[in-house]
Amino acid sequence: MIADDPEKAVFVCFAARQFQWKSWVLSIRKLFKHVDPRVRAAAVSAVGELAGPSLAPSVYPMLSDADPDVRRAAEVAHRKLDR
């Protein structure tokens, strides 16, 4: 499973953003709960790029993540989604 390998999970989030794989958004959103903050940050960034405003509420809790990089990614994503 992709979530078991943090590097693969980060790469999938990057690839989804690069290739605009919008259909992957709901699967990527599941990575918001990943133990590795790099994965959480990549996931929230990908969702911010690929999703529409309806997913803004799912990004909101990430604004209070323990990791500062995740919080920054969530701020950017939330601004993009809250249009």
Could you describe the 3D structure shown?
- It is a single chain.
- The protein is mostly helical and 83 residues long.
- Helices cover 60% and strands 0% of the residues.
- It has five helices and no strands.
- Helix 1 (6-18) packs parallel to helix 3 and helix 3 packs parallel to helix 5 (68-81).
- The longest helix has 14 residues, at 37-50.
- It starts with 5 loop residues before the first helix and ends with a helix.
- The mean pLDDT is 94.
- Rg from Cα: 11 Å
H and E string: HHHHH
Contiguous helical run count = 5
Secondary structure tally: strands: 0
Distance between the termini: 34 Å
- Roughly how much helix do the residues carry, as a percent range? 55-70%
**Overall pLDDT metric:** 94
Low-confidence stretches: none
Instruction: Summarize the biggest pleated sheet.
Output: none
Structural class: mainly alpha
Q: Which strand-content bin applies to the residues?
A: under 5%
What spatial form do the alpha-carbon principal axes imply?
Answer: globular
Write the layout of secondary structure elements.
Layout: H1 6-18, H2 25-29, H3 37-50, H4 56-59, H5 68-81
Helix pairs in contact: 1-3, 3-5
Summarize the structure.
The chain is an all-alpha fold and 83 residues long. The protein is 60% helix and 0% strand.
Properties at a glance:
60% helix; 0% strand; globular; 83 residues; mainly alpha
